[in-house]
Amino acid sequence: xxxxxxxxxxxxxxxxxxxxxxxxxxxxxxxxxxxxxxxxxxxxxxxxxxxxxxxxxxxxxxxxxxxxxxxxxxxxxxxxxxxxxxxxxxxxxxxxxxxxxxxxxxxxxxxxxxxxxxxxxxxxxxxxxxxxxxxxxxxxxxxxxxxxxxxxxxxxxxxxxxxxxxxxxxxxxxxxxxxxxxxxxxxxxxxxxxxxxxxxxxxxxxxxxxxxxxxxxxxxxxxxxxxxxxxxxxxxxxxxxxxxxxxxxxxxxxxxxxxxxxxxxxxxxxxxxxxxxxxxxxxxxxxxxxxxxxxxxxxxxxxxxxxxxxxxxxxxxxxxxxxxxxxxxxxxxxxxxxxxxxxxxxxxxxxxxxxxxxxxxxxxxxxxxxxxxxxxxxxxxxxxxxxxxxxxxxxxxxxxxxxxxxxxxxxxxxxxxxxxxxxxxxxxxxxxxxxxxxxxxxxxxxxxxxxxxxxxxxxxxxxxxxxxxxxxxxxxxxxxxxxxxxxxxxxxxxxxxxxxxxxxxxxxxxxxxxxxxxxxxxxxxxxxxxxxxxxxxxxxxxxxxxxxxxxxxxxxxxxxxxxxxxxxxxxxxxxxxxxxxxxxxxxxxxxxxxxxxxxxx
Length: 601
Hints:
Layout: H1 14-23, H2 57-69, H3 73-86, H4 91-104, H5 107-120, H6 125-137, H7 141-148, H8 155-171, H9 175-183, H10 191-204, H11 208-221, H12 226-238, H13 242-252, H14 260-270, H15 282-299, H16 303-316, H17 321-333, H18 337-345, H19 354-367, H20 371-384, H21 389-401, H22 405-417, H23 427-439, H24 443-456, H25 461-474, H26 478-491, H27 496-509, H28 512-525, H29 530-542, H30 546-558, H31 566-575
Helix pairs in contact: 1-17, 1-19, 2-3, 3-4, 4-5, 5-6, 6-7, 7-8, 8-9, 8-10, 8-15, 9-10, 10-11, 10-15, 11-12, 12-13, 13-14, 15-16, 15-17, 16-17, 17-18, 18-19, 19-20, 19-21, 20-21, 21-22, 22-23, 23-24, 24-25, 25-26, 25-27, 26-27, 27-28, 28-29, 29-30, 30-31
């Protein structure tokens, strides 16, 4: 019987996980962002299919509302714009159209609507913020300050205005006033943003002693934040302290192992190069403010605010790689895959994140149901860059999901062959290769890989679950299987698949009371899983609850089991369990048989 497994941290939402891993910048800083609403989509690039406008005002309005509910800002912007054209005096409609343009990245239209809004509502803070960003892009820093002074009406929005205002002062060649402005931010919730941007400002203004003091202070309080670590490492390098810079990056690396920006910086330091400053102009500094606020909002689930900030950031600095990754990840999260792909394709070729953006495109293609295209795309990357572990891992996971298990084994084997044998990060690769072997019924190789995964990551619950379940289902190594499953449940007590596995081990031991308790709990945790419902039917039959057993088997059938499991379920529905079938479980008191070839645990 096929083992249904809990999605691993690497298999579950693989594309989103990679995007978040790459996008981390000021994610460690806590901030409640002000704009509350549902998210929308990105149209930095024109959509493949033009939107069909209705001939009626009501038709376009309903289409706009529908697009908004589906979080598709590109469509919403088009439809609201058409409705507004025919009903230009409607203030609420103007506000909706402005917001849709802003979240979709249609900045020129957004600025036009902001102008119109302020003629009718001078207190609209978001419109002032948008026009302040427009002025900054044009290096009109005085005008930007004027707009930003009207954009804040609560503490969170004041933070945005204060940070941006400080950078306008840098643009106006008043860095000391900029630092004084930030120093007045006393709220400790905002300390991370204050310290980081004051350090950047002192650095851009070449106030060397102040920059060194503030950079070090920001780093000491935010050692787990990539953007702060990178800024400090680059600052040290430009001060001729490459050895110290290297230690800063190496200390951070375990947090986001082999992050491309960290790897690229270390490579440059190894080559004796001096790292460039992350921020060189006031406009880039403002873009960094908006990126930081946007990435924080994304992490807190405030998608609309995050999109607005990230779109503004990219307007100011279109090639900011982390802003691109962060916004694209948001689009993936709200199921706007085509928009995400457009963003990933906009990644600069010179960016260390370009290779990862290419891999991400393949993952998004797969999520859109374009698996053939995704495999072709990732295969081409793997051919061109055979050492690209992320590309191989993505390719292997897609092949495995498509049940192309032999191909998946080949792909995972390439990763293993090109990596250190004792690299703990390889445990999921061995785990996935083991599953691929098991699904091909090549059990000795599967078993060896499961054991290797446990060697690299002892007590990993997913591996304990799969191996323990497999042994229990085969009726071998039952004592070890039972101990593994108990440990897995202890580690993940609310995982229905793992609880089911423990129940199945009880069943194989003939402990029907314990099996019933565990698998009934598993059904509560995962009521729509056909395998768990099938197991409960088997247990009910064994405990002479035959009517309930028939119900569970019928339910399992209707839930869409694996093709290889369906005939067995149908046979049980028709005939029940064979009463003369011999149990293969060994008595609990019998010593566990662990073949020497497995090397034990």
